[in-house]
Amino acid sequence: MTFLEEIIQKDRAILVYLNNLGSTEYDAFWLQVTDKYFWIPLYLLILFLFFRYYGWKKTLVLLVITAGLVAFTDQIVNFIKNSTHRLRPNMDEELKYLIRAVKNPKSFSFVSGHATNSTAVSTFVILLLHKYAKFIYLILIWPLLFAYSRIYLGIHFPLDVFFGILLGVSIGFTFYFITQYLFKKTFLYTKMF
């Protein structure tokens, strides 16, 4: 067995273990957690904090950049998924009877779009707001719960989530540096950065 095959086997074993910790009484909660609309209050809080600390002009720019970040992340994730063709656990013939698949999407698995997007946005927001709102680090609860929900529901492997988080951090930092550059090169620049 090669090193890569060994890692994949461990990834599958960890998925089976973590996924089977779940039970039907908690399924509704984890289905809510994995729904992006469940997090609307968090999005509104971020919008409020942007407005409070950056004013309405910069907030509009930050919203456009955040939308660009999400769109870019979606495209990167889709490119990786369509390049690697890793089957989701619920589609894997060897695994589908060993796990609790609460949802059954048909797309590819690697990397987790939920983990990537939520981590990218959280990283970006933390970098923008950590000087003004120390509690902003609590936003990390969002991508952690969001990412774990994918394993709980049986639709992602732990490595899908792990690499999604790494990719998300990278994208979040990249967009933060792009934002700094844009703000410094335009009338929007202040000492805030």
Count the domains.
Answer: 1
Order of helices and strands: HHHHHH
* Main beta-sheet annotation: none
Q: First CA to last CA: what distance?
A: 50 Å
Class from helix and strand fractions? mainly alpha
- Enumerate the spans where pLDDT stays under 50 for 5 or more consecutive residues: none
User: Would you report the number of β strands?
Assistant: 0
Count of discrete alpha- or pi-helical segments spanning 4 or more residues: 6
Helix content: 55-70%
Give the DSSP E fraction (strand runs of 2 or more residues): under 5%
- Radius of gyration, CA atoms, in whole angstroms: 18 Å
Shape descriptor reads elongated
Name the average pLDDT.
Answer: 92
Kindly describe this structure.
This protein is mainly alpha-helical. The protein has one domain. Helix content is 67%, strand content 0%. The chain has helices spanning 3-19, 24-33, 40-84, 113-129, 141-152, 158-185. Helix 3 (40-84) crosses helix 4 and helix 3 packs across helix 6 (158-185). The protein is elongated, with a radius of gyration of 18 Å. The chain starts with a helix and ends in an 8-residue tail after the last helix. The mean pLDDT is 92.
